[in-house]
Amino acid sequence: MNMNTKVEFAVNFEDSQCENKVKDSLHSLDGVHSVKCSIEKKLVLVETSLPAEDIRSAIEATGKTAVVIGIGDVFNLERKKSDGSMSLKQRRTGDLGEVVADDHGRATFKLRDEIVKVSDIIGRAILVTGAPATPQKRLGCGIVARSAGLFENPKRICECDGVPIWDERNKPLAGAGRRDN
């Protein structure tokens, strides 16, 4: 079973020296299987078994800003119709597993599930509850949104407010300071 994912990043390359730094940084990581760069399009395509956040951090360690703009090649599981009987490999859906946050409250994870596919939960609400001992404690919720697949997002400037993607994380998500330089 191939557990690799292709992740597409917009990277503010300036020249081949920047490109080489990014390639060297990524090739030094266990779990990175291929790296393709385009200075002209300011893109990096990485085939990896690592979380996208690890790849982004490695790119940004070179001094370049990186933004995930597409993810693809998700393991495509067989879709079978159920006759109502269940085998040991089947289970009820709903519990997507356990996520543990670090001391700063940040959690980065990658979920592979043989029953629940991302396409099945896009547009649906998801609820994060407390530890197994306190599952009734609600910690957060949200709606699962679709991100772009590979090469489906050529945007470099947010159409709604004109903020370049390189600057988005340094601006408030909304409000008066969003458009200020």
UniProtKB/TrEMBL annotation:
<dbReference type="InterPro" id="IPR006121">
    <property type="entry name" value="HMA_dom"/>
</dbReference>
<dbReference type="InterPro" id="IPR036423">
    <property type="entry name" value="SOD-like_Cu/Zn_dom_sf"/>
</dbReference>
<feature type="domain" description="HMA">
    <location>
        <begin position="4"/>
        <end position="67"/>
    </location>
</feature>
<dbReference type="GO" id="GO:0006801">
    <property type="term" value="P:superoxide metabolic process"/>
</dbReference>
<dbReference type="GO" id="GO:0046872">
    <property type="term" value="F:metal ion binding"/>
</dbReference>
<dbReference type="InterPro" id="IPR036163">
    <property type="entry name" value="HMA_dom_sf"/>
</dbReference>
<dbReference type="Pfam" id="PF00403">
    <property type="entry name" value="HMA"/>
</dbReference>
<protein>
    <recommendedName>
        <fullName>HMA domain-containing protein</fullName>
    </recommendedName>
</protein>
